[in-house]
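Posting for a labmate who doesn't have an account.
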Amino acid sequence: MPVRRFGGHRSLVSQSHPPKLSYGYTKMNISRGGYRVFSANSSTACIELAKKITERLGVELGKSVVYQESNSETRVDVKESVRGQDIFIIQTIPRDVNTAVMELLVMAYALKTSCAKNIIGVIPYFPYSKQCKMRKRGSIVCKLLASMLAKAGLTHIITMDLHQKEIQGFFNFPVDNLRASPFLIQYIQEEIPNYRNAVIVAKSPSAAKRAQSYAERLRLGLAVIHGEAHHSESDMADGRHSPPLSRAITGHTGLELPSSSRHIPFPGIELPMMMPKEKPPITVVGDVGGRIAIIVDDIIDDVEDFVAAAEILKERGAYKIYVMATHGLLSAEAPRLLEESAVDEVVVTNTVPHEIQKLQCPKIKTVDVSMILAEAIRRIHNGESMAYLFRNIAMDD
């Protein structure tokens, strides 16, 4: 093969091994496949997850510095060339959500302006995913965040167990929504003694499909908790109490006349009175007596519902109670409430940092999902099918 010479440098066209480096450097983060992996923040948990992923991939973690200046502005400094490379940005979401979002946006834009070929965000827990529906006069913040990420330069996202699968439609680029259920099911089979005597529990009817998916794959029974001790977030914020319930409105739908003009006839029909929604007292549909109860969900944040569910399950005869979820946000007083509750063990993955919460509540156990994230990165870069990562997973999972 002929050798081309440009000035003092040689360019070997058929070169199957990484080039030797000059200027005194003997090793850099050069991958034979032409991709790099960076961590979008300097927190211990994010770097730990990023290192686990890069170790499985056999590459080094990209060299970059992410820090907050004295005026709280986010600054990113990429320490190596990314021109023409596929770049994967790993970003976990700590308690300071807005700072994490800005770190991701600034790093993505820095890589875009540094001529990276593709920028793929690896965001195991997608922030603001609960704000994916219109609430009264609020906004769909998840859609806003999707637009911001696209504008910053992201071309693809790898995430895990989105709160609502329809969130994928907010993006104008590909989204791979991985599942943590295979890892949690493996934990049940290997770490829960006598799991064959267990029953999968949905803490609300809305979680029944997810619970059914677990129950079918484990060949276990299913129970559903119906009713609530207090109103949930969706009941208070979805606008079902607006307009007021106390009287019917005559006239054009959605308009209310001023008090001085209400005597004037207004063409239209009389709307039926909107009856308020009343939930029955909390109860369990299914037999849990003398069994292990395993409550499954996608997010554990405010744990009052889980604590209430554990209490009713204990009353119905369950002798051990597990709570399993993908994302362990565990905000505010959640660790203390879980420690004082009837829950025996809480199992979450490492999509969200929760080291401090584990110190406050020894019941919290962690399942590592870096394996599937690393495999997703490898397949996306090599242009391989992602179907293998979704085998034996139901649509409702």
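Reply:
Got it, the structure tokens are right above this. The mean pLDDT is 84.
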